[in-house]
């Protein structure tokens, strides 16, 4: 069986032979309990043929989806059910619901591990330039003590579950449990060696050196492909950073419409959607507030990536530019992605206009970058965009 | 992958006897294998043929299949493939009673493969053996030519849906073998179809006048051609020439490239032809399966239900069966289930035929009460469904037998789906209960490759000219470029494709306004958007660059 690496190698050769690459890195999202999803990285490809396009023709009413079959009672025109466009958990259960920390960590770890894989593929096979090391707090290690190691016989804390298992094991070996469906615990023989303790262990902890803010517009106008493109780019960026900094990267996620809001994890970041207006500055202001309040500028390289369709109610972008100016004082890079709707055409969007107009891109060309692309671009253009943002 | 145990094989053999007693017909030999779900993932990109040729796209599919399985584990009960002997795959954790049910299901599939006439061209082929020979040949080419073999496979697969499946089938079924094309035009056909239109290119009103004149002559029993030979002295000679000339067969795009491509005529490219042949034959082999999915699954579900319940070996497992059977054959509230639909349709057909309702009498009957009571007690239903399974495919099956009575009886409807901006939800609603709409909705799910042919008159000077007979559905635009790069490569010169796209005028300008509220247009008060207008365009592929020209 061929491996992913071999496939990508073969894909590179296509270019030498004068054909376009065909393999894309796909992502399958596995829905998990409690909104904890898992991303699985897989290669995908399409086999092009002449086929009919299933798109809805322009003579269909907009917002109408593909019809299908159905069974049951009801009159024509009757609504029989509704389904959320994107599953969003209710506000109430979103944060701080009573989940064990162990399970939570596990879920995140899986996401991280897979993002790491994707990042590896990206940086090796798409030849992204490396982010500059600011070197400040590079991989500074310190030790913390945690009760994670296990020891038989003596220790600080009795691990009851592990101990009981051991006892059962011993007693089964001794033949003292003839019928596993009827265990009489009173007849157990307990050896001192069966006691399992947790003991303090010295663990290395790495200081993170990069902190990345992902910001995106999730207002009404962001529907469909625009969001997909922005999120796609941010997934790649995120994955690549996770790889590049060997998981020592910390991330924060902020969404905005007319107000900004911080969400706890990437899943929420990419799946949330509302239908409201757009005030870009709220997100940038929020970053400034967080950085100030938590005194983050001292310890971290701070990166801010922002994705939008370029729409802003604040036409002159005064407050946005102010917030950006403030941000430039501490940030290592601001990357702004404008993904344009097809109907916008070549017309400049508001965000483009005022960012360009302010001259900030020239004055701080090493600190802030902007990339503008159309909503229907492919992966390679998105990767090109990442290169622009981090060049 | 291993054969099933002797015990399980015994159950199968027992099932065969009962199935044959019930009227199903199939070869006695079958092979049953136990596979794991992981094996299934590796087999499915190869359309379940273990010996299919290797190709990297299959590998990509396997890798993504594994990822998908990790996220969404599934547990298919069975897969049957159309080979001689018929092979079927099972996963290994089925209890005996479930195996009985699955085996009946599989036997009905095999019966379908071996009796439905659309499969006729697959009956004399040992696919697994053929595929193995092909696989070895391709492996040998690969050792000589490296990755260029994969390009040829890719490009050949790029047009493997443009094959003359129906033409080949027609040829086999009508047994016209002496002439490759078969149809020889008589004098009248030749005069109207070729002579007037192609050779003389008369304007349309004159052509119509000629038809009128012909009809008059017919009514008066006069010889139409007396005047013709006076008017066009050359006519008779041309006609005689036409008859003697063996008509060139209409080639499908793949055949045309194979036969006339200047590039493939080069001796060093000879091997590519073998590869293209393999791809073409493989595609043709699977065409009947794609075109009979609803029928085939319905047929299998019909028989597993009927045979299972009459099998005394499963006494005591009726409720288990009911549960599994319901999961497979329940009609979904929203969605299409070919198993469920096909099963109900076969039952419907059998019942109506038993009552003699497929008759002129019934058709003419307008009285609703009498219609409801109509029953001629013909009891020919069973024979009739066997006839249907032999002679039809999905389109004719649905088109002929899904009627308003069927709709009403199972309370079927077309479910629409629209965006509800207030709740940010998809809203499902009953769009139509009319049988025409329901049939159309199913037709839209059926396999229907675009009708693209070579225009010989415009092919020449190294250019291959393709024409898309437009059926109100545009081609998928993203795919055009790479498909045409492939054809250009195999043709060895520029390729033109004529097709239709929506004209700019009918692109909705109102889209921007509606974007905030995509559901706004769905309201009943808005006037319906104007119908789409189409314009013909020509795509030109030259030196791996694609251009589009307006016509």
Sum up the structure in keywords.
heterodimer, A: 391 residues, alpha/beta, 6-stranded mixed sheet, 3-stranded antiparallel sheet, 11 helices, extended, B: 551 residues, 4-stranded mixed sheet, 11 strands, globular
What does this entry show, briefly?
Chain A is α/β, with parallel strands linked by helices and 391 residues long. Chain A has helices at 4-16, 91-94, 101-125, 160-173, 225-244, 266-271, 281-293, 318-328, 350-358, 360-363, 379-390, and strands spanning 24-30, 38-44, 68-71, 79-84, 141-152, 157-158, 196-206, 210-217, 249-256, 260-263, 301-308, 333-340, 368-374.
Structural write-up:
The complex is a heterodimer of chains A (about 400) and B (about 550). Chain A has about 400 residues and is an alpha/beta fold. Helix content of chain A is about 35%, strand content about 25%. Chain A is built from eleven helices and 13 strands. In chain A, the strands form three sheets. Chain A has a six-stranded mixed β-sheet with strand order 10-9-8-11-12-13. In chain A, a hairpin with a 3-residue loop joins β9 and β10 (about 260-265). In chain A, α3 (about 100-125) packs across α5 (about 225-245) and α7 runs parallel beside α8. Chain A is extended and about 80 Å long. Chain A starts with a helix and ends with a helix. By secondary structure, chain B is α+β, with helices and mostly antiparallel strands. Chain B has 25 helices and eleven strands. Chain B has helices spanning about 5-20, 35-45, 55-70, 95-115, 125-145, 150-155, 165-175, 185-200, 205-220, 225-230, 235-245, 255-260, 260-265, 270-290, 295-310, 320-330, 340-355, 360-365, 370-375, 380-390, 395-400, 405-410, 435-445, 475-490, 510-515, and strands at about 1-5, 30-35, 80, 85-90, 410-420, 425-430, 450-455, 465-470, 495-500, 535-540, 545-550. Chain B has a five-stranded mixed β-sheet, with helices on one face. A four-stranded mixed β-sheet of chain B has the order 1-2-4-3. In chain B, a hairpin with a 2-residue loop joins β10 and β11. The termini of chain B are far apart. Classes of the chains: A alpha/beta (about 400), B alpha+beta (about 550).
